[in-house]
User: Fold this.
Amino acid sequence: MLRNFFKVAFRFFWRNKSYTILNYLCLTFGLTCAIVAALNITRVVSYDRFHANYYRLYEVEANVTYFNGDQFPKELLSASLPDVLNEKVPEIESITRVVPREHTFINGNESFSENGIYADPDFLDIFSFPLASGPHSGALSENNSMVISERMATKFFKTTDCIGKTLILKEDSGQEVFTITGIMTDVPSQSYLSFDFIIPFSKFLSGNPWAFEIGATACQTWALLSENADVKAANEKMKNLIREQETTLNQELFLFPLKEKILYYYSGGRRIWREMRNLVLIGSIGFAILLIACFNFINLTIALNIKRYREAGIKKVVGARKSDIISQHLGETFLITFLSLVTSIDLVSLSVEVLNRAFNGDVQFDFTDFRIIMIFAGIALFTGIASGLLPAIYLSSSNPVSILKGRILTSNSFSAFRQGLIVFQFTIPIVLIIFVLIVKVQDGFFRNYDLGFDKDRLMIISGLKENQAHSESIRTDLLSIPGIGAVSFSNCVPARGATVTNEVSWEGKDTAQEIHFWNIKSDFDYDKVVKLKISDGRYFDRSYPSDSAGFVINDIAADVLNYDNPVGRTITLDGKKGTIVGVFRDFHTIDLTGPYTPTIISLSGEGSSNLLISIEERKYSDLLGKVKEVIGKYETESTFQASLYSDMLKRTELTTVSNLVGLAFIVSILLACLGLLGLAAFTAESRTKEIGIRKINGASVFSIIKLLGLNYSKWMLIASIISVPVAFILGSVFLSRFNFRTPMPYWAFIAGPVIACAIALAAISWQSWRAATRNPVEALRYE
Assistant:
C-alpha cells in the first residue's frame, strides 16, 4: 500500500516536474517566512517567563494628569509607598523597590561603566534571578555589599570566583568601596529588567533622603500578589492612596502586570500597543505570505487535476473510495510540504542571522528546543492541510462515468473560487506596497522636518560624566578650534527628550493640580546651537548677572501658567525661584510623535551629559579628531560617542517598520508572480492547439499575448480596487499615531497598484510571449 502510494506520487511529480518544482519553491519560501515570524513572536511572548512568580508580579504605577488634561503613566514613585500599600492593600504579599542606575567601577587600572540596580533585600526572593555562588539570604544586607553577574565578574576579575573581593564605585568626584557578596547567573536576554549588579536599596536612600517625599519620582515599586488575589479589588483599594496622602497630587495608582510590560504601555488611562504592534505586524505578514504560498499550490494543483480526472475515474470504477483518493492527494501534498520544510530549516537559520543584523533583533533558532520543533510541525501541518484538502476533495468528487466518456469536469464555482484566490494573492502585496510608501513618506517627513537648525552642522557628543567641573575649560578649548561656532552643555538633545518634573509652582496656581513640565538644563549658549525662536523677551545673557536665577519658557508653558505677559513674572522650579526672562516657541523637546510640551529652560549643569557643538558645513570629519583630543583631556574615563544630528536621523523608529514591510512586499509579490507564472504556463500549454490555429490564420504575436493576458489583467484590477480602501484605513490608523505627520500621500494609492501590477503583468507577458512565438506547425503536427 505504502509502496504504491510513493510510486504513484513520484510518477506524477516526475511527469510534471516544472509545476512540482514551482509548488516546492512557493511552499519553501512561505514556510520560511511563517516560521521566522513565529520564532519572533515566541521570543517576545517568552519574556520573563523564567520567573517562578511570573503571573503574580505587578509593577505599581500611577496615571498623572498631563498639561492638556490627558493622562500619562508615571513609573517611578515615592520610596515611602510600600508602607502605605502593605497597610491598605492586603492582596499584596510582598513589595520590593528598584532604581536602575549606570555606574563606573574601578578595579586596579581598569574601569568600566555598567548598568545595574539598587534593590531591596527581598528582590532576589520575589524575582527568579538565581545566584551562582554566595548566600541567597543576606546577600544585600549590608549597605556596601554588592551582587554582580557572571559576565561582570569575568570582565573585572577574569574569573567568577570573586566572593569577598571589592570594587570601587566612582561617582562624580567621590569613590566608594563595595564588597562582592554574591555572583548571579547572567540575566537572560528575554528579561524586562536588565542589569549586571545589585546594590542594596538602603544605600540609595542614604544619599537620597528626598525619595521618601510623597510625590517623589524615585523608584520602581514591584508587588507580588497573593495566590488567587483579586487584581481588580487591589487596583480599587490603591487607586487614590497618593491623593489621600497629598491632595495636591493628582495621581491614580494601578497595577501593571509583568507579563504585559514588554507588550504594552499606558497613555491617557488606556493600554497602548508597544511590542504588540510589531507582533501583530510580523505575525500578519508571515501568515499572509504563507497563505499566498498555499493559494498558489491550490490553484496550480486544481489546474493540474484536469490531467488526473481519468486516473481518478478508473480508480473509482475498480472500487476506490472517495477517501482513498483524498488520502492519496493529501499524502502527495504532505510529501512536498515535508521536502519544503527540510529546505526551510536551513533557510530559517540563515534568515534569522541576516534579519537579526538588519533589524537589530535577537531572535534565536535552536532546533533542540522542543518549542521550536512544535512550531515547525504545527506550521507544516497547517500548510499541508490548507494546501491539499480542497484540491483533494475537488479531484475525489469527479463522476467516473462522465470522465470515462471524455467529459471533463469544469465547474464554474471552482473557477470563480480560483480567480478569487488570485485576487486575494495580489491584494496582499498591493496593500503592503501602498503601506510601505506611506511609512516611507512619514519617515522622510521626520528626517526632513525643520527643527530650526541645520542638522548637518550640529555635532552631538553624549555620555559625558565630568563636564560640570571642566565645562568652561572644555568650552574655551573647543571654541579655539577653527570651524566651531558655538558650544553648549545640556541634558536635552532637540526632539530627544529632557527631564520631566512636577515641582513647578507659580502665582495663581491651582494647588489641586500637579502638572508636569519638561526641564531643559543648559547654559548661556544653548540658543546659539539649536537656534531657539524667541517670541518675547530674550534668552539668557552673561551680561545680566540675575539671569543665573532666571528661566526661559515656551509658549505652551506660558499657557499652562495662564500668564498673558510672562516676561518678568516669577516661578519656582524644583525649589529654585526665578524670573522669566524670555519666551520661545516651536521647539520640540520630545520626538515628533508627541505634541509640543510645556518646557522650561534653566541654567544648570546638573545632568548635562550631552555636548552640542555648532560646526561649519562639511567640517565634521576634519573636526572630529580635534574634538576627541580636547574631550580626552578632561573626560579620561568616558566613552567618546560623537555623531552629527543628521546621522542620528538615518535610523528612526520607522526605519525598521518600513524595511520589514518592504521586504514582505518583495517576498509576497515574488510568490504571487511564481503562482501566476505557473498558471499562465498551464493555460498556454492547454491552449497550444488554439494558439497554433490562430497564428496560421494570421493572428499576430501581440494579439496572442493580449488573449492570454486579458483575464489576468482583470484580476489585477479587481485586486487593486479592493486593496485601496484597505490600505487607506491602515495608513490612516498609522499616521494618527503621530502629532506631527505628513498629509496622506494619495499618489501612493496609484503608484502602489501600478508597481505591483506592472511586475505581475511582466511575468505573465514573458510566459505569454513564449507561447505566442512558438512555431504553429509543432502544435498541429500530430493532428
